[in-house]
Amino acid sequence: MIDLHTHSTYSDGTFPPADLLRAAAEAGLEAVALTDHDTVRGVLALGGVEPPLPFVPGIEMSIQYREDLRFHMLGLFIDPSRPEAMEFERFNQEKRHERNRLIVERLNALGYAMDYEEAMQRARGIVGRMHIALTLVDKGHFSSVGAVFAAVMNHGKPAYVARFRHPAPQGIAFIHSLGGVAVLAHIGKELTDRDEMRAILTDLKEEGLDGVETRHPDHAPELREWLDGLAGELGLAASGGSDFHGGNKPSVALGRGRGDLDVPFEVYSRLKTLAEKRRG
């Protein structure tokens, strides 16, 4: 069993990278990827650490497929030392700060007093909406992070601000520039229509997409099976992971998701071979 979708304290998780690796080994995983949002700093922080299990350096980014449809994309088996990685991070951090400050302005206008610097102090790397939500909970404005998003920060709510997203072909090209494989994440979170899923994956395959995350806690078992079949039909590699965030998503466990996730080691092997071929 493996897990190719996790987050550390360098984005919106609660486990430092080295602790995440130890927890993965203790959970009996055979391989694990670190895929923090828009940053490779957590991966780089493991430079002096001997991983206790096969480790996949990764990243998760946001992409715009069309004006009304957005996705997340994973880059797996990337080389975080390439200059493109830090250029990408600097650009995205700037865009995140712009968005976060607008969110905080709206929250203050709604009567939820806080300073953006308070959220920044919570983050070791990328500052995200999770850090803003945690600050609101600490200040007593809400009882939980989930309550914050449901009331004011989800799409359509008064403090929601759309974030910058890279066009899908640009996202795929960026991951390839790092020597990685591009995998569309949790498509079942954004779509329910399977004909549309098929059409989009077919289109993105033509743009260079390498794989699709078929196994995810937000995909029902029947959808996972269907996506596995579709991936094979389209010539895409299947991937899977828990989307682990530690204490920020306490119902999701490493490797097991909400208890029924099981991503076999052969998934790791196929993606590793694909990455090696891409790097020539």
Structure description:
The chain is an alpha/beta fold and 280 residues long. The model has no long low-confidence stretch (mean pLDDT 94). The protein has 2 domains: 2-88 and 164-278, Metal-dependent hydrolases (TIM Barrel), CATH 3.20.20.140; 89-153, DNA polymerase, domain 1 (Orthogonal Bundle). It has helices at 17-26, 41-44, 83-109, 116-120, 129-138, 145-153, 168-177, 187-190, 194-206, 221-234, 265-278, and strands spanning 2-3, 31-34, 55-66, 69-76, 166-167, 181-184, 211-215, 237-240. Strand 7 (211-215), helix 10 and strand 8 (237-240) form a beta-alpha-beta unit. Helices cover 43% and strands 15% of the residues.
Major sheet characteristics = 8 strands, mixed
Give the fraction of residues assigned to helices. Answer: 40-55%
Total helices: the number is 11
Write down how many β-strands occur, each being a DSSP E stretch of 2 or more residues. 8
**What's the number of domains?**
2
Q: CATH homologous superfamily of the largest domain? A: Metal-dependent hydrolases
Distance between the termini: 28 Å
List keywords for this structure.
single chain; 280 residues; alpha/beta; TIM Barrel; DNA polymerase, domain 1; 2 domains; eight-stranded mixed β-sheet; 11 helices
Gist of the model:
By secondary structure, the protein is an alpha/beta fold.
Would you spell out the secondary-structure blueprint of this structure?
Layout lengths: L1 E2 L13 H10 L4 E4 L6 H4 L10 E12 L2 E8 L6 H27 L6 H5 L8 H10 L6 H9 L12 E2 H10 L3 E4 L2 H4 L3 H13 L4 E5 L5 H14 L2 E4 L24 H14 L2
Parallel strand pairs: 1-2, 2-3, 3-5, 6-7, 7-8
Antiparallel strand pairs: 3-4, 4-6
Helix pairs in contact: 5-6
